[in-house]
Amino acid sequence: MSFVEQFLKDARVMSSDLRHRKIIRTALGNYEVARDKRAASFQDWQGARQLAAETKWEAVNRLDKYLEEFVSKIEARGTKVHWASNAVQAREIVLQIVADKKASSVIKSKAMTSEEIHLNDALEKAGLNVVESDLGELIVQLRNEAPYHIVFPSMHLTRDEISELFQRELGSAPTNDPEELTMIARRALRKKYLTADIGITGANFAIAETGMISITENEGNARLTAAVPKTMISLIGIEKVLPKLADLALFLPMLATMGTGQALTCYNTMYGGPRLPSETDGPEEWHVVLLDNHRTELLADAEQRDALHCIRCGACLNVCPIFRNIGGHSYGTTYSGPVGSVITPHLRGLQDWKHLSSASSLCGACTETCPVKIDLHHHLLQNRRNAAKSQPAFAERMAYRIFGFVAGRPWLWSLAKKFGWLTQPLQALVKGTPLNPVKSWTDTRDLPVQPEESFKDWWRNRK
Questions:
Q1: Is the domain of 279 the same as that of 332?
Q2: Model's pTM, two decimal places?
Q3: 200 and 345, same structural domain?
């Protein structure tokens, strides 16, 4: 199947699954209550959004300056920095580090960039044992699935389903108690931290001023992933840069508020280099891989470069009516929901992924909720326009040419209206059949019934 065919098939299945819909709507309903409560605790939430948007604008529009500053300061403390132009190069860099260390096992904390470049598959094909340490990521890994959501990887599963999974894969006793399920995963993971040769992390923010990365989490697994193995690798998208350390005073609570409805996540850790001789834990060697993978191409698009402002909070997914009905897996790509529909055509090819930009009600809820004020629903329209402009369909091009020719000649337009009324019974007859020229449109919509008398005719007769 093509990407669009697979998307339509999966979306049709998921949108008719009422059980799935109930699980997601219940989860997101609880999230909305917590999010609104935390947002209301800001002295000026809209002012905070504006400041965050301006800060990211500064970082992204002067990305070359801040990246160089970040790299120079982090390298000065012994960190090895690698630049990856694309996914293939990023995988090769990581695999080379693994080979140099003669590693056999890897433990990972949550990193959407690793999902983006399909790093786990590459490591496993190279013979390594790879374990996700984030609870949600571990669950979907055991199910051989991709993460369902940017923030909540396993939000589509119930406690009973997770219990059955742990019974089958980890040999645990059945339970639907959340705390006990967490303890089962914790017991299974402890030994993995101790035996892992390499720990791989992502980063929420990279601070240019200090040459440090910030990782925010709720489980403490990222701290163990970074602290216990002798070698640490951090895979970071180049857009994650913030100019100053003080910017975290805004972005950390904002990310927690919009991501999980918390005032602040449980663990917020800064990393500035490998372990010093006076320190008791931390990696002996730290590698930072800065990933481009088409981000600079998006940066070159002045109209849409603010999509790089995204802090991966998942807020736009949580309010999107399309995501709520078709779920995260239907999108078939790393980044789902509105922001995924905006950036995936840039990251993976406009013509192959243009259908995602049409999977939107254009209600504007995503733009309204985005903490950094990305103009998401307008970018979806811009993607549609760019796709049609760069590779217009022959039938669509001819249809618009004919329409323009007819609409530009009043006498012909008047004749066409009368002809349209005569063909109304024929339209009803061919609807739902392959003979219907607009079948893809009428499969989910009804053609408007053309009135027997137009307004112009009515006005003329009234006179």
A1: no
A2: 0.89
A3: no
What pLDDT, in 10s, does the model give residues 106-152? Answer: 999 999 999 999 999 999 999 999 999 999 999 999 999 999 999 99
In a domain, 323, yes or no: yes
Within this chain, do residues 438 and 319 fall inside the same structural domain, yes or no? no
Total domain count, the chain:
3
329 and 457 in a single domain? The answer is no
Pick the last residue of a domain from 369, 390, 411: 390
Look up the domain containing 399 and give its range: 394-462
pLDDT, tens digit, 9 for 90 and up, residues 71-101: 999 999 999 999 999 999 999 999 999 999 9
Amino acid at residue number 450? Q
